[in-house]
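Notes from the 1:1 (GR / supervisor)

We went over the backlog. Supervisor wanted to see one worked example end to end before approving the batch request, so GR pasted a single chain during the call. The sequence is below; no edits were made to it. Supervisor asked that the structure be written out right there so they could see what the output format looks like.
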Amino acid sequence: RDVERSRGLGDVYKRQDICVIFQGVKKTKNFELAFAKIYPNFTSKLLANCDDLTSIEIKMCILLKMNYSSDFIRSELKISPSTFLNSRSSIRKKLGLKRSQKLINTIIKI
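Structure output shown during the call:
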């Protein structure tokens, strides 16, 4: 919730919109398209920072951008806790983050 407040009302409104879209689009598998309508430059900016992310890593970044919990992300992507942690580590490495830098903060700024 503090992250939502720090990003401003516009981003909170967008997250509410994408949550509604996510619930409706989940069945049609077009979640990425719905997300792109709300955050049109996120994926291109993400790939500009790191062009070798896998599709699962990109989806994780999208869900992290929306501030979803680790449990929710693992459930949606149908991955194990160890796969989730390995993927987070891989994303951090590919983005060149230092130990002192938080992945979520980096994703939110993109």
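Supervisor's comment: The first helix runs from residue 2 to 7.
Batch request approved.
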